[in-house]
Amino acid sequence: MNTDTLSGAATDVSGKVKETLGGAIGDKSLQSEGAADQLTGTVQKTVGQAKDVVEENIRPLVDYVRQFSKERPFTAAAVAGVLGIALINTLRGK
């Protein structure tokens, strides 16, 4: 869990409290502010969860590629060249 996920959860909870309090005292402005805070908190939690997924899944792949490049620099350069040519041909429509 990262700081975005924790901050988003806190914002979501405070938004729920504001919305409930606004409903209890009849303050529509406070109620709306609470709903907005909940939405902000949900978005922030989602961003934090996405960061966690990227960190858990992409980081090992990047580390593997770096290690492979250090151990086999000529093979890595050849693979990069082939992928570059394939990308250029794809973008040109061939």
Automatic annotation (TrEMBL):
One Pfam family linked to the record: CsbD
Positions of transmembrane segments: 74-91
Annotated CsbD-like domain residues: 4-55
Swiss-Prot/TrEMBL keywords: Membrane, Transmembrane, Transmembrane helix
Family stated for the protein in its record: Belongs to the UPF0337 (CsbD) family.
PANTHER family: UPF0337 PROTEIN YJBJ (PTHR34977)
Name the record gives this protein: Uncharacterized protein YjbJ (UPF0337 family)
Organism: Sphingomonas faeni
